[in-house]
Amino acid sequence: MKLWFGKSPENDENIKNRFSCLNKQALNGELDDWVNTATDCLALVIVLTQFTRSIHRGTPQMFSGDNKALGVTMLAMFHGYTKALTPLQNIFLPCVTLSCQENNTVMSLWL
C-alpha cells in the first residue's frame, strides 16, 4: 500500500519509465475496451488514477484521468463488478476513485 499512498520520487520514476505509454493510451481512450470484467475495470482505474498521479505528480495533469476513472467505476458498480473483487481491490475500485471526486453526491456513494 505504501507504493500507492506515499510519495516517492523513485516509485514515481519507475512508474513513469514503465507505464507512460500505457497511461497515455488510457487517457486517449485507446483502452476503453478494458471494461468487460471486474479485473479489467480495476486495472484501467489504477492506470487512470494511480499511474497518472505518479507520472504527472505536482502538475494539474496528475488529475487528468479522474473523470474517465469515475465513468469506469460507475460502469463497474452498475454491472456489479465490485462484488467480484477482494476487499483490497475494492480500495481502488470503487473507494479511491469515488473519494477523489469534488462532488459530494459522488463521494457519498462510497461512504
Number of strands: 0
Helical segment tally?
Answer: 6
Rg: 13 Å
Q: Mean pLDDT, as a whole number?
A: 89
H-E string: HHHHHH
Overall, the morphology is globular
How many angstroms does the end-to-end distance come to? 21 Å
Which segments are poorly predicted (pLDDT under 50) over 5 or more consecutive residues? none
Q: What proportion of the residues form beta strands (DSSP E)?
A: under 5%
Structural class: mainly alpha
Proportion of residues in helical segments: 55-70%
The major pleated sheet works out as: none
Structure explained in plain terms:
64% of the residues lie in helices and 0% in strands. It has 6 helices and no strands. The protein has helices at 2-5, 9-27, 38-55, 66-78, 87-99, 104-107. The radius of gyration is 13 Å and the shape is globular. 28% of the residues are buried.
SSE arrangement:
Layout (H helix, E strand, L loop, with lengths): L1 H4 L3 H19 L10 H18 L10 H13 L8 H13 L4 H4 L4
Summarize the structure.
This protein has 111 residues and is mainly alpha-helical.
Labels describing this entry:
111 residues, mainly alpha, single chain
